[in-house]
Amino acid sequence: MSKDLTDLQLLTALEPVVEQNINRHMRMRKDWNPHDYVPWSEGKNFYALGGQDWDPEQSQLSEVARVAMIVNLLTEDNLPSYHREIAMNFSMDGPWGFWVNRWTTEENRHGIALRDYLVVTRAVDPVELEQLRIEQMTRGFSPGQNAQMGDEVFAGSLFDSVIYVTFQELATRVSHRNTGKACNDTVADQLLQRVSADENLHMIFYRDVSEAGFDLAPNQAMKALHKVLRNFKMPGYTIPDFRRRAVVIASGGIYDPRIHLEDIVAPVLKKWRIFEREDFTGEAARMRDDIGVLVEELQETVEKFEVAKQRRIERQAQVAEKKAAKNLLVSTSAAR
Fold first, then answer.
1. What mean pLDDT is reported for the chain?
2. What is the C-alpha to C-alpha distance for residues 303 and 281, in angstroms, rounded to an integer?
3. pLDDT for residue 67
4. Cα(177)–Cα(168) distance, rounded to whole angstroms?
5. Model pLDDT for residues 200-246, shown as the tens digit of each residue
6. Which alpha helices (DSSP H) does the chain contain, by range?
7. Residue 57, Cβ density class (10 Å: 0-12 exposed, 13-18 middle, ≥19 buried)
């Protein structure tokens, strides 16, 4: 039985792959400026500077779009915690260190642009947004917070981090893109297309480095993959009242169980050929089989969610129908 490689050995062995992927990323990335996607002409002072404070009627976003925007922004706000996580697990030396700083630089503009857009357009309550930002960042984030496997605490490692971030970046890309469409606003859609494009390139980097990791140490990478998927949580789960917000987002088609399975989990597993590879042995082979079980469980979750969603739509339609009938009756009576 071969002994697992240390993170230092993995970092050294994967360094050429990281350098290749950085070079590709720098060729493919497109620079953009947050200020170009903020409708500054719509801005006006708040009360402290003699203007008017926020009022709910000023927001032009639907509830789904507003909640999704807030969750997306608060997720981006925790960048210091994400930087710390990958800096600790990737190191700050050589190509790894260059990527940590480059990734952080590109991610930082997402929060800047989203906050400026939301505040200038008065799409959300800026006071509540600031309170949530403070709470969210104070709580921090780690992929393994509160997650355990039996008696084994989810401990961070190179493979844990790079595999987790592969799924997380893809999920964030999809969430931002769908939110842009839900906003029903050309500027917001253009902004979130830019953010999504960044997230996609970041995902490709982590996905391909992870793939090289599977070739280098398949059993070790599989153990990390199993741990990540069995305990997967989006980085926004530390946001106050996250469960309720997640329900609104799922019901609105921004990010739901079907999207998680079909657009996030399945494509990455296919790219890594998880169910085709024959180099997993022992415990790792059993974990690969359990991931197959997990996929089936996720499919069951999708089916249950779709049934519940349809029932909710039918209930809402009935309520709307009764309300319309009542209003018609009132109008008829008044006419008499």
1. 90
2. 33
3. 96
4. 14
5. 999 999 999 999 999 999 999 999 999 999 999 888 888 888 989 99
6. 7-28, 63-77, 79-90, 94-120, 126-139, 158-182, 186-216, 218-230, 242-251, 257-259, 266-271, 282-335
7. exposed
